[in-house]
Amino acid sequence: MGCYECCMRCLGGVPYCSLVATLLCFSGIALFCGCGHQALTETERLIETYFTRNQQDYTTLAYIIQYFQYIIYGLASFFFLYCIMLLAEGFYTTSVAKQTFGEFRSTMCGRCLSSTFIVMTYVLAVLWLLVFALSALPVYFFYNMDATCHTIEVLTETPASINQLCVDARQYGLLPWNAVPGKACGMTLSTVCKTREYRMTYDLYIAAFTGAGITLLALLTYTVSTTYNFAVLRYLGRKGISARC
């Protein structure tokens, strides 16, 4: 076999669909975990500086933020390992499919492994759809805050109307109802929107939301890929002799 034929055979065994999904998953998880972790830290600073004067008012929020940051660490580790396993499974199945039927004998373990990956990936995609929806909530909060600040800038000539425009963190469950002041109004809110911390936090949440969307796309791609791989194994298994493990 010549060098060209050998290279073509190797390239033919590459699971391009799984490879693309792995790159999407790595980039999506990196965006979601990295930006989400930093955005949570910046959110705690904003709430502490501009929305409350008593430390006890945001103690619960600080614990919740810390809890979510630990979850982010776990998600990053889990998806890194899971994507590697899915890519390895894709390499195995694609290489097998490219062989002639006479050289291949399907195993029960191979088919069980593929079906397990199908179920796990489908469940992960459904769960991650919920994460994707939840990651839109902070973007919605900051979008409303940004829209209110824009309205304040338009109505700068009428101070009475400006003071009635507020963003209340208590309405979004970020602070308890007895927190003081719990909200930012008028020019105070406009000042908050002009700070570097606010703009950076807003951008970080948008990036985290985008990363969640990319990860969801990767999981859907994995679902299609693993389902196809399982179908290939079942088809080729019928061409082999008895199933073995």
Describe it for me?
The protein is an all-alpha fold and 245 residues long. The chain is 77% helix and 2% strand. The protein contains eight helices and two strands, in the order H-H-H-H-H-H-E-E-H-H. It has a two-stranded antiparallel sheet with strand order 1-2. Helix 3 packs parallel to helix 8 (196-239) and helix 4 packs antiparallel against helix 8 (196-239). The two termini are 32 Å apart. Mean pLDDT is 80; it is low at 100-105 and 241-245.
How would you summarize this macromolecular structure in one to three sentences?
By secondary structure, this protein is mainly alpha-helical.
- Quaternary organisation of the protein chains: single chain
Q: What integer is the average pLDDT?
A: 80
Radius of gyration: 25 Å
The secondary structure category is mainly alpha
Strand order of the largest sheet: 1-2
Distance between the amino and carboxyl termini: 32 Å
Tertiary shape = elongated
Describe the largest sheet. Answer: 2 strands, antiparallel
Catalogue the unreliable spans. Answer: 100-105, 241-245
Index terms:
2 strands, elongated, mainly alpha, 245 residues, two-stranded antiparallel ribbon
What topology emerges from the helices and strands here?
Blueprint: H1 3-12, H2 16-51, H3 59-98, H4 108-134, H5 136-154, H6 159-162, E1 166-168, E2 183-185, H7 186-193, H8 196-239
Helix pairs in contact: 2-3, 2-8, 3-8, 4-8, 5-7, 5-8
